Amino acid sequence: MSDRVFRVEWVPGSDRLAGRCHCGARTEAEDPVVLWEWLLAHPDHPSGGSGAPPRPPMRLVPVPA
């Protein structure tokens, strides 16, 4: 069994997910893909800190007329 555990949990009352790396780094994101990319980038994220993943580009959705 590996000691490298990643945790992803829903933040109650929000649309956000909280992620924790096995090194102790924590962050939150709305997009699960962004969160997992941040987790899997270990060790290229802040160790033991709360570094935020980069925000994805804003997507424009056309509004029907």
Explain the overall architecture:
The protein contains one helix and three strands, in the order βββα. The chain has one domain (about 1-50). A three-stranded antiparallel sheet has the order 1-2-3, with helices on one face. Strand 1 and strand 2 (about 15-20) form a beta hairpin. About 15% of the residues lie in helices and about 20% in strands. The termini are far apart. With about 60 residues, it is α+β, with helices and mostly antiparallel strands.
End-to-end separation in angstroms reads 56 Å
Main beta sheet = 3 strands, antiparallel
Average pLDDT metric: 77
Provide the helix percentage.
Answer: 10-25%
Main-sheet strand order equals 1-2-3
Work out the number of β strands. 3
Q: How many H/I helical runs?
A: 1
Strand content is 15-25%
Radius of gyration (CA) equals 14 Å
Low-confidence stretches: none
Tell me the overall shape: elongated
Question: Which structural category do the helix and sheet elements fall into?
Answer: alpha+beta
Q: Would you list the SSEs in sequence order as H and E?
A: EEEH
Please tell me the total number of domains. Answer: 1
Q: Could you give the topology of this structure?
A:
Layout: E1 7-10, E2 17-20, E3 26-29, H1 32-40
Keywords, separated by commas or semicolons:
65 residues, alpha+beta, three-stranded antiparallel β-sheet, 1 helix, elongated
